[in-house]
Amino acid sequence: DVKVTQSSRYLVKRTGEKVFLECVQDMDHENMFWYRQDPGLGLRLIYFSYDVKMKEKGDIPEGYSVSREKKERFSLILESASTNQTSMYLCASSPPSWPQHFGDGTRLSIL
Amino acid sequence: GQNIDQPTEMTATEGAIVQINCTYQTSGFNGLFWYQQHAGEAPTFLSYNVLDGLEEKGRFSSFLSRSKGYSYLLLKELQMKDSASYLCAVRDLYGGATNKLIFGTGTLLAVQP
Fold first, then answer.
1. Sign of CA dihedral B45, A35, A52, B101
2. What pLDDT does B49 receive?
3. I want to staple B105 with a disulfide (CB 3.0 to 4.6 A). Which of A16, A42, A82, B80 is the partner?
């Protein structure tokens, strides 16, 4: 069974802090993704990566960056957290052309 | 532009059949996925269509018409545990290798006794 693990289920941070969200997958998948999910807006893609050290902007990359130094790990970074980044963050991984598998999500609150 | 439409909410009765529709307008098409998401949990993969027609998997079936930009998810013999959000997602023409998906906002299904 594919396992996608996100480091925290719940996280509370303050405005202006640098925030790191970590995601690890154990199936040697090439592709990894970061989404945020907000009521009425659905899942929106922030960044994705199709190989180590490769990254591509998704639909809403502003205010975020990512890092993929190892194949199994994909990190999302909020450079200077703001209240409008309060959301549920979901990480996913997949091999090429196969369904994405999601982690349990991190509910992030920025105060 | 890219657009995926699904009804926001639906209600159905335990034991019945429900059909959740999804229409899409994307720059290209390279497959359509359905996911189920229970409240507070991760989305889980249900079905995948790339060619026209019906794909059946137990109580769940998914249909695709590429010429109409239309899909539906059919749930039979509804159970209370089927109460969840159902997400439609399209992989566009350039998303083959990277597997990039565009998601609809989801349909919240409530199954009543």
1. positive
2. 95
3. A42
Q: Distance (Å, rounded) from C-alpha A33 to C-alpha A99?
A: 12
Q: Residue B110: how many CB atoms within 10 A of its CB? A: 12
Phi-psi region of B80 (alpha: psi -120 to 50; beta: other; left: phi over 0): alpha
Lowest mean pLDDT among A4-13, A31-40, B96-105: B96-105
Q: How far is CA B2 from CA A107, B28, B29, in A?
A: 27, 9, 11
- Pairwise CB contact (< 8 Å): A42 & B96: no
Contact state of B99 with A102 under an 8 Å Cβ cutoff: no
**Residue scoring higher pLDDT (A74 or B91):** A74
Average pLDDT over residues A49-73: 94
Q: What does the block give as tokens for B31? A: 């497959």
Strand order in the sheet with A73-78: A4-6, A19-25, A73-78, A64-70
Q: Do B43 and A43 touch (CB under 8 A)?
A: yes
Give the helix ranges, DSSP H, for chain B.
Answer: none
Rounded CA-CA distance A4/B69 in Å is 32
The distance of B17 to chain A (nearest Cα, Å) reads 25
Q: B84 and chain A: CB distance < 8 Å anywhere?
A: no
Chain B positions in Cβ-Cβ contact with residue A42 (cut-off 8 Å): 87, 103-106
Q: Is the pLDDT of residue B27 over 90?
A: no
